[in-house]
Every structure is written in C-alpha cells, then in structure tokens.
Design brief:
The structure is a homodimer of 217-residue chains. The first copy, chain A, is an alpha/beta fold and 217 residues long. Chain A has helices at 2-26, 42-53, 69-76, 94-102, 145-148, 150-154, 167-170, 174-184, 201-216; strands spanning 30-36, 58-64, 80-85, 111-115, 132-138, 158-162, 190-192. Chain A is globular.
C-alpha cells in the first residue's frame, strides 16, 4: 500500500511537472533547478550568475523549509525573487511550483532559477518543471559527496564546486571528487568557483547559455 | 488518506523507538543520535570523541544513503562501527535501528553513537531509540542555519559547531548563529570545535558524560 501510494505521488508529480515545463517552454522560459546541501553556496552562485546575465530577464524561486533570508537578500540586490516556504517539507514538488508560478510575473524569454531546499537527497527525486538540474557542492563538504549522495549528482547536468578558496584549508581531494562525479554522472562538467569573488562563474554562465540555446532551439 | 498514513508511520516508528530505547537503557547503553548536513564533520567529531572515551566500550552506527566510506574509516581506527545503507532514504528510522541492533555485539554499559544521514531536515522528525540528539553544523555552512532548519536545532540537546579554523575565511557571524540557536533551542549549549586538531572536543566529552550520568541514574 505504501509503495503504491509512493508511486502514485511520483506519477502525479511528474505529470504536473511535464505540464509546467511545457507551459514554460512555450514562453521560451529556460528553467534551472539548483540542488545542494545547506550552505553549499547556492544563493551566492545565483547572485553571481544573475549579475552576469543582466540585462536579460531573470527570476529566482527560493525554496526554504523556514525563513525568507535568501529571498530578502536577492531582492535587496534587485533580483526578482519569489519565496516558497515548505513549512518542513524537505524538497520542492510540482504542486508548489504551480502555486508560485500562479503569483509570479515573469516575462517571456526569461531565465528562471529555482533554488531547491538545502538537501542533497530528496530534491533529486522530484522533477518540478525544470529543463535541467545542476548540483552545487562546496569543498568544505569533503571530496566524497558524489559517492555518498549519487542521485543528486547523477540527475544533474553539471556540478558547481564552490568555496574553492578553502581547498587547501580543508584538504580537498579534487581527483577523488572528480572520479566520483565521473562514475555517477559521466560527461557532466565540473565548474570550480569562488562565489565571494566571482572567480570561475563566467564559465558557468557560458555553459548555461549554451544549454539554453540547445534546449530552446 | 495521506495525512493519516503519515501519522500511522510516525506512530509505528515512535512506538518501536520507545521499545528500542527501553531495551538499550535496561542494559545501561547510552545512545546519541547525531544529526547534520552532508560534510558537517559528524564522522570527525565521533572519531575525536571515541579517542577520548577510550577505554570505555563504544560503538558507532553509520547511516548513509550509499557507500560505506565512513564505516571503513572508523573501523580502520579500531572503532566498532556498523553500517546502515538506506539505499535512497533520507533519514534513519526505528525499524532500521532494530535491524542493525540485531546484528551488533554491543556490551552492556556502552556508549552508542548513531551518525544519521547527512540531512538537516528529515532526521529531525524521527526518534530511533536514542536518549538524545545532537546537531553538528560547520561554520562553512553559514551563520543562518538555525533560522533555516529550526527543527534539527530545536530537537537537539546540544549543537556542535565545527571547522572553526575556517571562521574568518568564510566570514562566519557567530553572534547571529548563537541568537538563532537560542531562539529555537533555548538553553542548548554550543560547542565550537576543530575536528582535525581536536580543539574543543574535551568540552563536548565532558558534557556527554554529564548527560549520560544524568540520564542513566
């Protein structure tokens, strides 16, 4: 009974996610679902990416279990940000996306970034209308994350490795990390960045532009 | 229907957790459920604590979504470690604990540490037979974690703040963190540590000994 219910929840979610994605694509809105642990640097990444994509239209949906700290911070930077507060739920789902899209004003042709809940497990299991997922991991989390949380990496089209200024301080083993990523997500590019200085973010933006062009053509 | 099922799952879990805890307590085994994000430093903390509690009997249960990297590392240090691999599940539950306890050899009067899945959300919702929970958060995750993930902090008897050597490099705001902790977990002590050098771990061990003495008396 539980397994059947679980399957029904996934099917219902996936069907709605498909509709949401169709609706967004029909308006040439390119949608990126950003996964990562608490404190991986998702908001910093989005801030840096948004700066570089200006003046193209862009909106961010911020998913949080509680608090609107990140939404307030993004708005203060002039970024069009919308909050989903799940009140305990550990991932976003398609119904939450449908609800927030209903109250958003987003231009045709926009970039749409969704910062999922800080969690390297559950968000990987749900599509929510995105064109692709990316996963953000900080060097401070250690070199073993692709091995320990394979789904978040295998379902993502690219991996952004953050806080690279701490590499030596934390003894990060990039070879071990890269080998783990290659084993669960063969071909997915790795982008090392420093979200505080912006180092490395241009390469992420170039890759996003290529992914968008290829997806919307 | 879904809500009822959710309630039934919790009730079933809590009932079993109560029985597990009774069984452990009757053998004077003191059980600590360790929560924290991926890469927060849970395994390093347990390694340092185990070194200091020697020669007292001690066992560790390692929860992981995938891989046995931590269990292998703990065993290599001579620590009695047992693996639970959830195969995708985002938290440990009482039935998993019952299963692993069935295959463990653990002496009466032992310390039992459970490293829960790296996830600051779902593990907070489940009791699994522990006497108390502690939450581990690294300065690299940022100063806002108690505000964003209140349940993990409010359900924990203490908070271990790790990787304090990175404080300045990441611009950690300890006052903001402490205020957040105090608001969701009034009275819970904060222990800043460096898991690589062992700095600060003695205070954690003293607190654990006092908690154990008070719990088992």
């Amino acid at each position: 009974m539980r397994l059947e219910l679980k399957r029904a929840i996934y099917e219902e979610n996936d069907e709605l996610a498909r509709k949401i994605n169709e609706g967004l694509r029909s308006r040439r809105i390119f949608t990126v679902n950003v996964l990562g642990s608490p404190g991986a640097g998702k908001t910093s990444l989005l801030t840096r990416v948004a700066e570089r994509l200006r003046p193209e239209p862009l909106a961010v949906i911020e998913g949080d279990v509680a608090s609107d700290i990140d939404t307030v911070a993004l708005k203060a930077l002039g970024i069009d940000a919308y909050q989903i507060e799940t009140g305990g739920d550990c991932h976003l789902n398609a119904p939450m996306m449908e609800a927030v899209l209903g109250r958003m004003e987003i231009s045709d042709g926009s970039w749409l970034f969704i910062e999922n809940i800080g969690n390297l497990i559950c968000p990987a299991e749900f599509v929510i209308g995105e064109d692709l997922k990316v996963v953000v991991a900080s060097v401070a989390e250690g070199s073993d994350k692709p091995y320990k949380y394979p789904a978040a990496f295998s379902k993502s089209a690219a991996c952004i490795l953050t806080k690279i200024d701490l590499r030596e301080a934390v003894g990060f083993d990039e070879g071990f990390f890269r080998a783990g990523l290659a084993s669960v997500a063969p071909g997915a590019p790795l982008f090392p960045i420093n979200g505080r200085t912006g180092q490395g973010v241009d390469a992420v933006v170039d890759w996003l532009k290529a992914a968008r062009a290829s997806s919307l053509k």
